[in-house]
Amino acid sequence: MNSTKSSARARLLSKGASRLALGVALSVVVAGSAFAQSQGALRVTITGSSGQPVAGATVVIKSPDSLVSRTATTDAEGKVRVSGLDPATNYSVSIVSSGYKDFSASNVAVSAGKDLSVGYALASDENAVEQIVVTGRSLAAVDVTSATVGTTLTLGVVESLPTGRNYQSYLQLVPGVKPSSGGNPASRSGVNYSDVGGTIGQSTDNVYYLDGVNVTDPLTGTFGSNFNSEIIQEQQVTVGGLPAESAGGSGLVSRVVTKSGSNEWHGSINYYLQNDKLVAKDKHSTSGGFKTYDTAFTLGGPIIKDKLWVFGSYQKKHRSDEVLDPTTGAVRRNVTNDAKYAFFKTTWQITDNDRLTGTFFNDPTEISGSRSASTLNNRDSATKQGGDNYKIDYSRTWGDLLINAYYYNHKAELTTLAADQSIRNTVTFRGAGSTQAQRELGGAGANSETHRNSEEWGAKLEYYLDTDFGSHTFKGGYSMTDNIYKRNATVPGNATYTSIASAFSGRTYLDYTTASSGWTSRPFASTDIPRIQAAMAASANASYFRGLLDTNSDGTISAAEVNALTFTSTAGNPGGQINAYRALRTVDAPYSIKSEGQTAYIQDTWTLNQLTLTAGLRAEKWSHFSSAGDKLFTFDWELAPRVSVVYDVKGDGRSKVYAFYGRYYDPIRSDMANFAGNLTGPVTEEQIYIGNQWLTFRTRGGAVVPDSVFGPATKTPYTDEFMVGGSTTIGSSIGVSTSLTRRVTKDIFEDYDLAIYSDPNCTVATCAALGHASPGTAFYLPYSYFGFSSAPNANYVLGTLAGGKREYTGFELSVTKYKTGNWQGQASYTRNWAEGNTNSDGNADFQGDWIAIDPRAPNMWGPQAGNIKHQFKAYGSYDFDFGLQVSGVFNWNSGSLFTPADPVSGRYFAPQDAAYTYAGVTDTYTTAGTVGSEKNPSYYTFDMRLRYQHEVPGLGGKVEFFLDAFNILNKQSTTSVQKLLAGDGTYAFKQANGWVEPRRFYLGARYSF
Length: 1009
Fold this sequence. Notes:
Blueprint: H1 7-14, E1 40-48, E2 58-62, E3 70-73, E4 79-85, E5 88-96, E6 103-110, E7 115-122, E8 149-154, H2 155-158, H3 167-170, E9 193-194, E10 199-200, E11 207-210, E12 213-214, E13 232-240, E14 253-258, E15 266-275, E16 290-304, E17 308-324, E18 331-351, E19 354-362, E20 365-367, E21 381-386, E22 388-398, E23 401-410, E24 413-418, E25 424-428, H4 436-439, E26 440-441, E27 447-467, E28 470-490, E29 495-500, E30 507-508, H5 509-512, H6 529-538, H7 542-549, H8 559-563, E31 566-567, E32 578-587, E33 591-608, E34 611-625, E35 631-648, E36 655-665, H9 670-677, E37 683-690, E38 693-700, E39 708-710, E40 718-730, E41 734-746, E42 749-752, H10 754-757, H11 764-767, H12 783-786, E43 796-800, E44 806-820, E45 823-836, E46 862-863, E47 870-879, E48 884-893, E49 897-898, E50 902-904, E51 907-909, E52 916-918, E53 921-923, E54 934-935, E55 939-951, E56 958-966, E57 974-977, E58 992-995, E59 1000-1008
Parallel strand pairs: 1-7, 11-14, 25-29, 39-43
Antiparallel strand pairs: 1-4, 2-3, 2-5, 5-6, 8-13, 9-10, 11-12, 13-14, 15-16, 15-59, 16-17, 17-18, 18-19, 18-20, 19-22, 20-21, 21-24, 22-23, 23-27, 24-27, 25-26, 27-28, 28-33, 29-32, 30-31, 32-37, 33-34, 34-35, 35-36, 36-40, 37-38, 40-41, 41-44, 42-43, 44-45, 45-46, 45-47, 47-48, 48-55, 49-54, ...
């Protein structure tokens, strides 16, 4: 493509026009139709030594990592913008102009989706050559047309630092990203806490792309694929200010661009290892012996020079661990993890204006069990996961019109097999003193094979228009996505139990459902009473139940009489405990559900002098289908505006200030479509033991009474973001950035029990004591709120959580020294404020099923559990002239907030008061001041790396040796404490239960050519 522009057009471009270059080598596109930028641009300014513009200079830009070079000519103001550049940090910029010395600059960086500014001063023929860098000659250059906030991680950065060898670990280098042991970290307003198990450090709001393929698990919202980190060319992590062309936004967006080969054959082979001999003594007896290795090769080069490149990689990873009993320190089990990652990519530059790219990668992995010391052997499961991914991408340039079309197919299997095939029996105790082994009898309780597949087709276009009143870059795109979830699961023994320990025989239903009673788990709630009453009345044994419980002989069983039910029988109970609750699997059958998405966007970036205004509109539509093929619900087109204003402070491309507003919709994941869509799959009956028999009070799954239905009035959850900030370049290689962000999340998605919230026959006199809302009271939601005229045939209704809201305010400051000369580094500070009245994240939590924890209930608003108020990060590396590189990474945080908790059906809820009446409902409401009231300890980690490089005589290429030292100071600091007020059978409340791992050395070697 000829990038030469007219004088008027170049003048406008130089003052901030943002034209997104077409992704010709790699189309890193956002599924759900956002097309992430896979190429970038440079805005070049040429002056003479005295500052006068140099017009008509020929500028040639090329890189050995790109199939094409670009040539352009400066305008009357000595400016030109060159687009269509693949991301790399080794570009050369050559300048030839009559009357001046020829000039060439090396190691110029181009980042995907950015317009970076560089400037050079030429010496005249009469004088010595002099270079003046006007803006950053590296990634320190500022894109003065964009309000997007993020970090670009190049292979040179991540390979110089002690990090885990995967793209998930690299996220921890990004300012403000919170710690995560599972590789799914929260950022900014992304939810960092789940009521299920009280988990901290597992976000479901992120979006992950590997070479243009959206590998985000459509069921869980977590990453769904892995591959060899050495094939990464660039990883862009965006945390705010996303334009209309981008999906996601409530969490971070990670986009990985891979290598594509070159005009010369290059490759590498490596081997990394670690074992327990390289690890310091564990002061807390949580880790035993282990060993791991990681070996891979890469190879890339030309099939036809300047036309057809190939690049491939294969990696094998193995790890084996001894998992210790945290109480005794004895070996509990041995666990192995074996993974194989393959990658192949072909890039065909058909003409100067046409490129076709095909990509394949997969990641089959087998894990024999859990490495967690908190998992008992009998509750362990083996896992098989991974799948194949394919993508084909075509791009074409017609003058100022750029088009792109693509297709990808992502497959991901997750299969689990219980180690112990006996019946699962969770035994509950009243108060502390029981052990985990006493509480968790039997196996894991399930075997399952699931497939989380997706495919997408999409196209985008971009058109540049130069006018007398500024320049415009118009963008538009459309995509169609299919997400398919398949599941086949069995339950060993066809049942799982929650029983009462035999020592507590004779306890009543009221005692068992009262929060202050201190039970280690509660399978029932007071709100289950109406269902139990109805089930007894409809039972063929109704007379038996009346004879047992109808103590006043009025012919009906009242709520008080249900509360008086005692649990005493051990008949047929696995483990000989007291029967209370059972989930009986009555039907086993495979099934699949599907979600179809459409996304479109239109966007204009208008630049006039130093001011750039970007305005765009993003539209999304999603339909969900049941396992019977029926349409469950359509979330119709939602419009998300995104607007930003950016000002180039001095007009020299070195500094900017900006403001941004945007709305990010969070489409409902497949887990909730699965909740409503299982009409032909397994059926489970929930039962309570009354007298001498089991009574089914609720049926889950199947078409007779669907587990849930979508309310016609349900809205798509969204987050509004307001942000201001600025950035500047100091000298040639230092960037300083700051931002202030405000986010508000509303229309949160949940499931509702309409018997509790919407019974029109309720009155305060008849229903308040049951914990049910009555017409005219604050909690009551009429059927019309959900879009119904009468009660639907379903256990639950999926709808918008009334009153649910989260608020976030954050400040961030980062200073980055980009690599020039011998060193590079970064330091950042983040301050987070987060409050809300819900942790729901579209995952069928208990809000909507229990008024005591309704977002509008007393004392529910408070600090957001999982938030970390203060974070400081720093990293740096230094290269010595004799081939040695020394680097370090330092991370500190002030500790995550948590809520002291009582467990209810696997959820962690704040302490509750004795029942009292509020807004016409009597319930055990949350105790004041407990939500987010506790904090895990602050801690820091400091890791170091030594890397030595040496040229190999005779063979060519170079050999590298690595020594990583994680937690080099061996500060085995506490990272978390027990959240449960009654403990978990191993750790008491607020007792330390998580620590920084002991000092670990990691060895590696690599030969590359």
